[in-house]
Amino acid sequence: MTESAYNPGSEGARMSFADAMSYGDYLCLDGLLSQQKPLSGAHDEMLFIIQHQTSELWMKLAIHEMAAAREAMNAGRMPHVFKMLARVSRIFEQLNNAWDVLRTMTPADYTRFREALGPSSGFQSYQYRMIEYILGNRNPNMLKPHEHVPEVQAMLQAELARPSFYDDVIRLLFTTIDGPDAEIPAPQLGQPHQPVEAVQEKWTQVYQDVDRWWTLYELGEKLVDLEDYFRRWRFNHVTTVERVIGFKRGTGGTSGVQYLRRMLEVELFPELWHLRGGL
Ligand code: HEM
Ligand SMILES: N[C@@H](CC(=O)c1ccccc1NC=O)C(=O)O
């Protein structure tokens, strides 16, 4: 050590953690940083693993926020709901920006380790499916790949059996405007949300008099924001996939880019988009 090396310990920085909780202890970094296990010798496999692991961590936070937002909404704490939904949109923005790192991987780089992935695929991401299920895109066929992990399948199934976050929003929309006797459309349990005319009419009322229904309007716009970011994620994904594997079949067994293009047509909150043309 040179004389000139600055020692933060001299101004009080704690330098010994033999008997105290350190940064690594608190964040469980030993566990976290020992979970990157490339199966090939390919240089870019580490990028691929970390890209997916960080995505899963952000998805974990998104689910945490959406679960709390749902609770807050059902308890009438709308400012909290808005804060959490805004955070979920920012998480998607973060995931969208992350594609820039993955895009530095060329098709040749990926080919060096693609075979090592076997039949594994993002198609089997249960947190991704959970996000879709919470928001209302509920395809029960997507439960099947999780049959081998009963706890995971049960968790997804439990989500399918309850009203989605969007179902709860619809209930709030109707009761706020029509009061306790409102005729609320039944939640579409266990199936992808299909557009309902009465829901679009109700949202139209809100958008035609935003001053009167400001809180509902703000909620509607938060959902549109969220779906906007989600769509960008799907678009970035399919574009990256085409760039890296072209039109090859996916490791998960789907047609690949064609399958993902089909998913671009998914509408999470269709009524909120469709009402705009009629204003
Ligand atoms: C080079 C990078 C990537 C390629 C080539 C790729 C390829 C694919 C393909 C072909 C599918 C369709 C399913 C299949 O048959 O495998 C798919 C699905 C999926 N991928 Fe990726 N992917 C990449 C990166 C990512 C990243 C970074 C994530 C982030 C978690 C991700 C998450 C997903 C998810 C969630 C699905 C299911 C989508 C759905 O069912 O709507 N992928 N991917
Ligand atoms: N489906 C991809 C493989 C893939 O991307 C993947 C494989 C294992 C874990 C995560 C993945 N990411 C997204 O699908 C492919 O067909 O190349």
UniProtKB/TrEMBL annotation:
Record-listed E.C. numbers: 1.13.11.11
InterPro entries (UniProt xref): Trp/Indoleamine_2_3_dOase-like (IPR037217), Trp_2_3_dOase (IPR004981)
PANTHER family (UniProt xref): TRYPTOPHAN 2,3-DIOXYGENASE (PTHR10138)
Quaternary structure (record): Homotetramer.
List of residues binding heme: 237
Listed name of the protein: Tryptophan 2,3-dioxygenase
Job of this protein: Heme-dependent dioxygenase that catalyzes the oxidative cleavage of the L-tryptophan (L-Trp) pyrrole ring and converts L-tryptophan to N-formyl-L-kynurenine. Catalyzes the oxidative cleavage of the indole moiety.
Taxonomic path: Bacteria, Pseudomonadati, Pseudomonadota, Alphaproteobacteria, Rhodobacterales
Keyword set, alphabetical order: Dioxygenase, Heme, Iron, Metal-binding, Oxidoreductase, Tryptophan catabolism
